[in-house]
Structure formats: C-alpha cells, structure tokens
Amino acid sequence: MSDLADRTVLRGRDIPAVARPARAPVLPLTLRGVTLQLAGQTILDGLDLDLGTRGCTVIMGPNGTGKSLLLKLLHGLILPTSGQIRWGALSPAEVTARQSLVFQKPMLLRRSVAANLDFVLQARGKDRGRRDALLDHVGLRHKSDQPARQLSGGEAQRLAMARALATDPDVLLMDEPTASLDPASTLAIETIMAEARDSGIRVILVTHDVGQARRMADDVVFLHRGRITEHREAPGFFARPDTEAARDFLQGNLVL
Amino acid sequence: MVSTISRQVENLQGIGEAFGLAWQLVLTGDAALVEIVALSLQVSLTATALACLIGLPLGAIVATLRFRGREAVLILMNALMGLPPVVIGLLVYLYLSRSGPLGFLGLLYTPAAMILAQTILITPIVAALSRQVIEDLHVEYDEQFRSLCLSRGQTMRALIWDARYSLLTVGLAGFGRAVAEVGAVMIVGGNIDHLTRVMTTAIALETSKGDLPLALALGIILLVLALGVNAAVQSVRLTATRQAYV
Amino acid sequence: MTAKTVTIALLALATPALAQEQSILVQSTTSTANSGLYDYLLPIFTTESGIIVNVVAVGTGQAIKNAENCDGDVLLVHAKPAEEKFVADGFGTTRSDLMYNDFIIVGPPSDPAGIKGMTDVQPALAKIAETKAPFASRGDDSGTHQKEMELWSDSGADPKAASGDWYRETGSGMGATLNTGLGMGAYVLTDRATWISFENKQDYLIVVEGDQDLYNQYGVIPVNPAKCPSVKSAEAQVFADWLVSEAGQAAIAGYKINDQQLFFPNAPKQ
Fold first, then answer.
1. What is chain B's Cα-based Rg?
2. Distance, in angstroms, between B193 CA and closest chain C CA?
3. Domain A2-250: which topology?
4. Is the per-residue pLDDT at B95 higher than 60?
C-alpha cells in the first residue's frame, strides 16, 4: 500500500537526473546458433535471435526453459557452449558494463539504502550527487538511512532498480523482477521499467506473468524446451499465438 | 584418603582466597597490576590490529581469487594456525637477538618484540578465518558484483566492509589467542618487571614462586578482561544484527 | 606501505622503553629473581646510580646462551665452571664471586627414602636411588641442575637410567619443579633462597642440609664489548662494581624474608 502511495506521489515528477537526454540509439543485439550446455544437458539449443534497438522485449515461457540463463548470456555473465552473441562490435567486458541486470532476488549490500547507491556510483565513477535523485525516482528517499536489508521485498527491488539505473545502462535486463511481489509493488516496478524504456533504454524482461507481459511488451520471445518457438510483435502474439505451447501458456494451462 | 580430602579442602580454600585477592587487587587499583594489564592490552590489541591489517586482505585474496597454488596456500594458512607460541617466540628471538639478522634494531626484550611475535602468531588465524567468512559472502555477492563490473580491488574492499561485523569475531579470536599466550612473549619479552611483564608471564612467574592464590587472582582478572572485550564486541554485533548488517 | 607502517609502529614502541633512560639488561638465574632479591636490591642501586636495571630471569644455561648472543649487558648466575668458560671464550670481561647460599633437599614428611637429618648429600642421593623414591629434577641445564648432576655423579648412582621412572626431569624452572615435585611427593634439590620465598610449601620439610658440597656460589660477569659492540659496557661495569662494593655487599646481606638472610655476600675485598 505504501509502495503504491510512494509511486503516486512520484508520478507527477519528471526524472531528468536519471534518464540521459539525447540518448544515442542502442545497437542491435544478435544471437546466432547459441547453444548452452550445463552438466551435459542442453539447456538452450541453437538460438537465433535479432533484437531491435528500441522498446521492451518480453521473454516468456514455462519454468526451466532457460529464460534466466538467456539473460545471463546476453549480459556476458556466462558464455555459450557454442554460437555467437553480438552487440555491435563491443567486447564482452563492454557489453556487461553497458547493461544492467536486475535479479529476481535483489542482492543488497549490508549497508544503508543510500550507501548501496553510493557504492555503485563511486565504483563506476559516476556523479555521486545523483544519489538522492535516484532515490526520489524509485520513491525511497525517505528511507535513505535505513539498512537496505530491512526493506520490504518491493522496496528492495526498487532499490535494485535504482542501482541498475545508476550505471547509465543502454540495456536494462530484468529477470522476473516482480515474481514474489504484491500488486502495488509490481505496479511501482513496472512504472519504473516503463519510464526507463520511454527514456530510450532498451528493456529486456523475463516474466511468466502473462498480464505483465501484455502491459509491457513491444515484442515477445517465446521459449519452449530450450528453443525459440516464436518471436513476434506483441499485439499479434497475444491475439493469435502460432504455437500450441504459447496458446496454452497464455490461457493459463499447464505447459510442460 | 583423609589426606586427599584435606588437600581438596585446602585447594578449594585456595580458590576462595584467589577470588578475594583478585577483588582486592582490583579494588585497590594496585599500581603494578594496572601496569601489567595495560601492557597486556597494549601489546595484544596492537598485535590484533596489525594481524587484521595483514590477515584480512590476505584472507580476501585467497577467498576471491583463483590462482595456481591456492590450495597449497589454504593448507599452509590452516596449518600455521596450529603453530605453538614457543616456536614463534624462538624464531622471533633468533631474528631479533643482537647476534641475529635484525639485532641492530634493538627490539629484543621490548613490547615491540612481543607485538611482533603475537602478530606472527595470530595473522594465520585472522587470515584463515576471514578467508572462510569472506568466501561465504563472496558466493552471495559474486554474480551481482560481476554484473556491476567491479574490479578485484573494489570487490575485496566491499566484501571486507560488508563482512565487518563477522570479521570482528575473527579479530576477537585472534585477540583471544594473543592475550592468552605465554610462550612467545616470555622468550622475546623476557618478563622484565615494569617493561615487558604482561598478565600471562606474571601468572607464570607467580606460579613458579609458588604463590598460587596470586597467580590465580591474576588469571581471574585476565578472564574478566577477556569477558569484557568479548561482551563489548558481542553487543556491537547484536546491534548490527538488529540492523540487518550481519 | 603496510610493512613500513608496521616497522614504524614497532620502533615507536621500542624506543621509549629502552632508549630514553640509562638502562642495562641483566641475564640472570631465576633464584635471585624469584626470591625477591632484585626487588629489594635494584631500587637501591638505581637511586645511587641513576641506572635502571632490567632483569631477564631464566635458567643459568639459557642465561649464558642469551648473553653469548649479546642479548644482555651483565650475566649473574651460579655455575662456576660454565661461568669461567664464558669468560675464557671471550664473552665476558671478568668474573667476580658475588655471594653464596646453599642447596638443600626438600621432601615429604613421610620421607620414603629415610634420609631426613642426613648431612652428607651423596649418601642421601644414593639412598633415594636405592629405594627408588621419587625425585624431581630441573633437567634444564640450569645452575641448580648442573650442581645436581655433579652430586649424583659423586654419589655413584645413575639417575638418568631411571628417567621417567622414579627420577623425573621437569625441564622447567626451580619454582615449577617444586610445584611438580610437591604434587607427586618427590624429593627436590633446591637453592635455599627459592625455598624460603616459595609460598606453596605445603607440608614439605628440609630433609638434607649443611654439607659443604651443597655450597652455592653466585658470580657476576659484565658482557665483553669486544664480542658484543652493542653492549652498554660502562653502565654494566658500574653495576658489577657496585654489587661487589661494600655498599652492594651490605645491601645483599640486608635482604631477609621472615628474619632469614637469603644470600651471603662473599666478594673479595677490594
């Protein structure tokens, strides 16, 4: 409830300190034949994917199809067993540096809310004066001095988003950020995501909340059993999915 | 049989006497006692600080980096934890002796020599225990830190800082061993009155003089000191736990 | 950076202790320290001379070894042959007789070897060996231990053969050996000063005393600056000279516990 209230106050505010104005267009991301094997099992099997330079891509699919691992591959945290992931001509280190990944369970430092942001701003050579604006942006300014690990789930995730935005990413990778949150917190997170997307940040969101996918997606990648079975514009996908698995998934049937 | 019982009664009276004596020494603020306690704290706290200065970064390096010979370093660190103080005392003596390679420093039979010996004694403890603490935290933080593209130095500093309250306990373990050891400080300090006499060497001396109640009284005071330091650190830790900083 | 900080910190701690005041270091046997002699004697000397005397009290063997390593300015021990060798090897300048007391054998009232009241020490030791009554030895190459070995050798018994059986070598100082010996009802050879000042006597008694061979001579030797350039030879000489002077000798004679004199000065008259 308080989350929602915070956001309501925030809505009217503009956010110049967070979103960079006149953002250069984000480079296209391409995957060619990307295969990932872990412990002898093929998790992702020969993925080909072209991701555009704008908007929000939602990656959907049943549990265990490798959605989170796909995000980590895109982010450069793990390497594919075979195949190529290209983001312009950037080196793997640059790729990681220019993206931010928000994990399902945020890992916050054992420090105050403000110190969590100070740490990232300082470590990445960013202007530390932006800290309060970032906290305002996610509605946590009034909790600056509180221990970060005492935040509620929704607040913790908002702080994680502020931290993700603090590094001025070109791409925001989100791994089921609202999986265990109540509706008010979910709304707050979705609002921050939408604002990021609107400021020109490329958002790639993994979720299996169909409602969230409908609200956020510009295009949808549907993963099933380690393969991409569909990649389409959102309206078409939600209106008439091509595959039976996606159709079942959208209708809320159990998809294995 | 009768003599055994009377001996036991005598010993119990000795313990009672020791408590009385300890109480009396503290109450009267016995000058010699104050001097000895102050030196004990000065030597062991300084040694603990130095051991942390060396041991924490060492622990952090071994916890976070994967390098050739890491296993060997781990084994060595753990093995060094078991080094008897007397052996370290002897080594330090041989180095600091006027006829030794560092004799020109004139450090033998000074508090500095005792600090050096205790630092060598407890640095492996601090390093090995902090390695464990930091490695556990590293497992938790690793993915997030790699996502944030932190350098190794930034990672290690952040881990040490975030583990600070757990590392307090590590420092405490080191302090406990330093303040309790007698073998090393006896050899390199010489138990010189008003100069290098600390609690443990004073206890050893009074024992050898046969003044068991006084030795025990000093032991009780040492125990109370150790309890005090532990309680202080524990209360800091509890506060931190309440704030979810542990 | 860290190593430098450490060095500076250590030096800072080292200097005030030794450098500012005039002070010397005495490598001493334990009996003179444990009996409280120094607590009585040294303040008198410091008042007269302004020189502070620091004492490291260890067994005679270790004291000599430490002095040979140049870790001391004056040697004050009680093992004449070893002292003379120390001087002959060039580690000490000159040796002076300083004072004496005597060794005694203490034992439990039950007196299992039946030696109580004997005034000849060698036969008493022989009886201990014969009856296999427990005997606690220093076993640490101290002056007392060297004396004890000499006496055993003259007694004709071979205690080493029974080491761990009735002959028990503690490998520790006089006080610790007394504590151990009393704990297992063993006879112990000790110097009288340590025994008089020892506070854990329990029911133990002096069983053998008064033999000429139990005479215990202490000597004082300044460490030789030719071997040890770091030695504070001027101050060391002042201390050694004072000890054998009339004032020093009188001070030694003046130290008493319960009206019993512990050490008897016998420096040659100057």
1. 21
2. 7
3. Rossmann fold (3.40.50)
4. yes
Q: For residue C137, give the nearest of C169, C108, C105 by alpha carbon.
A: C169
For B:129-148, CB contacts with A below 8 A are 140-141, 143-144, 146-148
**Residues A110, B245: C-beta atoms closer than 8 Å:** yes
Counting Cβ atoms within 10 Å, is residue C146 exposed (0-12), middle (13-18) or buried (19+)?
Answer: buried
Architecture per CATH, domain C2-100+217-262, reads as 3-Layer(aba) Sandwich (3.40)
| B105-B109-B114-B115 Cα dihedral, nearest 10 degrees | -40
Q: What residue ranges do the domains of chain A occupy?
A: 2-250
- The position carrying tokens 């209230």 is A5
pLDDT in tens, C188-236: 999 999 999 998 899 999 999 999 999 999 999 999 999 999 999 999 9
Structure tokens at B236: 């800091």
**Mean pLDDT computed over C53-61:** 93
Report how far residue B208's alpha carbon sits from residue C175's, in angstroms, rounded to the nearest whole number.
4
Whether chain A has a CB inside 8 Å of the CB on B193: the answer is: no
What are the structural domains of chain B? 2-242 (1.10.3720.10)
**DSSP at B8:** H
pLDDT digits (tens, 9 = 90+) for A215-231: 999 999 999 999 999 99
pLDDT value at A6 more than 50: no
Closest Cβ opposite residue B192 in set C11, C56, C179:
C56
For chain B, positions 121-180, list CB contacts with chain C under 8 A: none
Is B185 touching C (CB cutoff 8 A)?
Answer: no
What class has domain C102-214? alpha beta
> Two tokens at A97?
């540096």
Distance from CA of B230 to the nearest CA of C (A): 26
Nearest-by-CA chain C residue for B114: C10
User: Considering just the CA atoms, what is the radius of gyration of chain A in Å?
Assistant: 18
Q: Would you call C115 an interface residue with chain B, using a CB distance cutoff of 8 Å?
A: no
Candidate from B143, B146, B244 with C-beta closest to A147: B244
CA distance C61 to C67: 10
* Cross-strand partners of A255: none
Cα(A116)–Cα(A120) distance, integer angstroms: 7
Choose the closest CB to C18 out of B110, B116, B205: B110
